[in-house]
Amino acid sequence: MDVARKIVGRDHLAGVARAALGAEHRLVGVSRLRGGSKKGVYRLTFEDDSTAIVYIWDDAENYWPTADAANAEDRADPFSHASGIELFQAAHRHLNTLGIRTPRIHLADRSRSYYPADIAVVEDVPGENLETLLEQNPRSVETTLTRLAEALDLMRRHTAPGFGKVALIDNGGLSHGRSSEQVVLDRALEDLAEASWRDLRIAGVRDHLEGVLRSLAGAVRPRSEYGLIHGELGPDHVLVDRQGQPVLIDIEGLMFFDVEWEHVFLRIRFGEHYQRLDRGGLDEQRLTFYTLAMRLSLVAGPLRLLDGDFPDRDFMRGIVEYNLRQVLAFLSGDVR
User: Fold this and answer.
1) Is 130-331 a CATH 3.30.1490.20 domain?
2) Is-above-0.85 flag for pTM?
3) At CA 253, angle to CA 158 and CA 194, rounded to 5?
């Protein structure tokens, strides 16, 4: 993606900080946080040692290749890039309505009065994310996992008759596609085609994989109601506040969809800890189909990201390799 990477500093965000938190908070430092492939995420540090987080939705902060970034504008595609302040605000409203914790908003601005892009200033939740805490001491976050399971149940019961991003559904819009499973199949076939020309191991089993995908999709029974899902709920997207409450971040992908799609991702990312989040009652045929589709997405998506100048390249290649091996294992009957 041929976009000059802007170095954002204190002078760029002083007006933003003042508008969000008042002149009594004097900004003394700005640091970019790791992650944020679609938006810039910065920590503001003030003279009194208080902090806040700034989200910046700007082309110069988006590491995805140009074609993928442009796809973000098609809100009727459930799997278009989850990026944009309107998605963030709609998701925040839904989660607040359900009583599900997410960082409090100090300022959300689309006017470009304070910065030449859409921005939001939110609460900086102190402490580590759930991924780090699970690695350090899983027993210390047992209460957090229980509360996260309860939040997932709330989201699952918060349903709509159509599927798609909440910002679209809230405005009476309709998503592309006849059904959720058809949308997943179409995306999986695109991911398969893309992965095949990038990697000979996938190319060698492409026809077999396509047949398996179509067979699994054909076995899924129709559905007319969809639950609320985060869309990318790994433990790195869950902060833990001082009361042990899970705090969801990177919420722009919130949508009404099959909850099985969420739980496949949860199972992949939480590993052995997923059992604390599993309340049962899921459609096993959808889970099997969506597992293969998700694995293909986690091969093709990172490969696209590596076409640009995303900085943590070894990490992204590791995601590709791991999930590619899982795709091949799936064909041998080792479904995970």
Assistant:
1) no
2) yes
3) 130
Nearest to 301 by CA among 64, 4, 101: 64
Which residue, 116, 126, 122, 90, is CA-closest to 20?
Answer: 122
Structure tokens at 68: 């993928």
Cα 297 to Cα 323: distance, rounded to the nearest angstrom: 9
> Once rounded to an integer, what is the mean pLDDT over residues 272-291?
96
Q: Checking DSSP bridges between strand 118-123 and strand 246-248, what pairing results, if any? A: unpaired
Q: DSSP code of 276?
A: G
With 50 as the cut, is the pLDDT of residue 70 above it? no
Torsion of CA 142, 148, 153, 158, to 10 degrees: 170
Band the pLDDT of 73: cuts 50, 70, 90: low
Task: List pLDDT tens digits, range 190-214.
Answer: 999 999 988 999 999 999 999 999 9
The residues, any chain, with a CB within 8 Å of residue 212's CB and separated by 6 or more, are 292, 330, 331
CATH number of 10-123, picked from 3.30.200.20, 3.40.50.2300, 3.40.1010.20, 4.10.320.10: 3.30.200.20
Q: Taking Cα atoms as reference points, which of 53, 108, 113 lies closest to residue 84? A: 108
